[in-house]
Amino acid sequence: MNLLLKYLSLCWFKNNPIQLFPSKAFMWKAVIFYLFSGIIVESLIADPADGTLEVSLRTIMAFSSIAAYLLVFKKWQYFNQMYTAIFICENFIMTLATLTEGLYFFLVMKHYEYAEEVSIAIAVVLVVWYIAIVSYILRQAFDTKMSLSVTLAFSYFVLTYGLPMLFMDI
Fold it and tell me: What is the maximum alpha-carbon separation in the chain?
């Protein structure tokens, strides 16, 4: 539980992911939670088979992107710490996004006039926060300038969400 709290503190821009050493079980639990929560959310939006395929593609792109960044910066030895840090924070944001979907459903059932606007506003905040978290993690790991880490985080977002979504539209 202590390790989970240390990883979650990355969401508030505290700690350095390189200084956290997850066990194999902890790392795989983070990935499994990522897969299951993503499949549940995507299955609510689209067909369960399509949702499963899209989340699988996102997972492959996430691992590939993290690996590519680590190879470019010659920090391959931090692969476990990096993917665990990003997946834990992504799981946290995904949980908040799921709660936002629940809030949207509740507001629609209550016939709240601005339900869609509220939901979209929260989604925008979550996406910006997510990019900021990934940027922080990358900046801590690679000791880069903020502009480069934000660019890498935005690229990571496009690679892990945009490409699988584009593939699913084909």
Answer: 54
Give pTM, 2 decimals: 0.92
What whole-number distance in Å separates Cα of residue 19 and Cα of residue 132?
Answer: 20
Dist. CA 23–CA 64, nearest whole Å: 21
Alpha-carbon distances, residue 122 vs 27, 103, 116, 140 (angstroms): 29, 10, 10, 27
Across 66-83, average pLDDT: 95
Nearby residues of 159 by Cβ (< 8 Å), 6 or more positions away: 61, 64, 65
Q: Which of 159, 161, 147 is closest to 97 using CA atoms?
A: 161
Q: Is residue 11 part of a domain?
A: no
Residue 98 forms part of a structural domain: yes
Contact 21, 81 (CB under 8 A): yes
